[in-house]
Design a protein that fits this description.
Distance between the termini: 7 Å
Helix content: over 70%
Largest sheet: none
Shape: globular
Radius of gyration: 18 Å
Number of strands: 0
Strand content: under 5%
Oligomer: single chain
Length: 267
């Protein structure tokens, strides 16, 4: 289990690499990276190429642990700026449904990626950091909290939009609505437990495992069926799930271990 926790940053890094590749491949931003009405951006294709390459390189640095703290802080900072100064104004000014929690889903997905970068940075040593990096490092304690809040929000969405979410459950799994509500309760409970530090190691590990199972049995089949259609929406969702799973494992690895019976060996 400890080895799995330590590999969580690799799941996250692969997710970032994948999203960067899709941004470059389609010469456009994935559905959750920036608000949808962005065609006003001059030279959109070139901006997408540059941003996609940056994400790809950042993810690779995280996977191979090259300046992982600095890269993670810069990545988290950029994504946080997008959330604060692009997503929030868009939701409040452009969107007519900003009072509905579900309308914030994509912005929360982007925020969760930002939080994940800060979580990973917090688990990496740093010294002789420059002013900008020291400033971004002050946000590290908020990474886990806000990631947990997004998980709680996703859990609430399972109840608000249960019938829509049920369509994503594979046909071979019975009792779709039961699993939707079960997933919703699990997400809400996990988020609360992580914030309150209630057996955070165990809960975060279970959360990461649950999301990884979704990645295998839900997202992979949809990716195979989509054939990269719809500008890679299903592929993006798969990489997001893998990244979220990795974040949860990193949180589990960083949290204080829960008490174990005498003689227990986790190797």
């Amino acid at each position: 289990m400890r080895n799995l926790f330590s590999k969580g940053h690799k799941f996250y890094g692969i997710g970032i690499i994948g999203i960067g590749f899709l941004t470059f491949y389609y010469a456009d931003f994935p559905y959750m990276l920036i608000p949808p009405k962005h065609l006003w951006i001059r030279g959109l294709a070139m901006v997408s190429y540059i941003f996609g390459a940056i994400l790809f390189l950042a993810g690779a640095c995280i996977v191979f642990e090259k300046k992982i703290r600095t890269i993670s802080l810069l990545l988290g900072g950029v994504l946080l700026l997008i959330f604060c100064f692009y997503f929030i104004p868009y939701q409040l000014i452009v969107s007519s449904k900003f009072m509905q929690l579900g309308d914030w889903e994509n912005s929360e997905k982007e925020l969760a990626l930002s939080c994940g970068a800060f979580v990973i940075a917090g688990c990496s040593p740093g010294k002789n950091e420059k002013t900008l990096i020291r400033f971004l490092a002050k946000l590290i304690p908020f990474g886990t909290i806000f990631f947990a809040l997004t998980i709680i929000s996703f859990g609430i969405d399972h109840f608000l939009y249960a019938k829509d979410v049920a369509d994503y459950v594979p046909s071979w799994i019975p009792n779709h609505m039961f699993w939707i509500y079960f997933a919703g309760i699990s997400l809400i409970g996990s988020g609360i437990a992580i914030i309150l530090k209630i057996r955070a190691t165990l809960i975060a590990a279970l959360l990461g495992t649950m999301i990884f199972i979704w990645f295998i049995i839900l997202h992979i089949p949809y990716v195979v069926a989509s054939h990269f259609s719809d500008t890679g929406g299903e592929v993006t969702s798969a990489f997001l799930a893998l990244a979220y799973s990795g974040i949860a494992f990193v949180i589990a690895g960083a949290a204080k271990p829960w008490p174990l019976p005498p003689g227990t060996n986790l190797k």
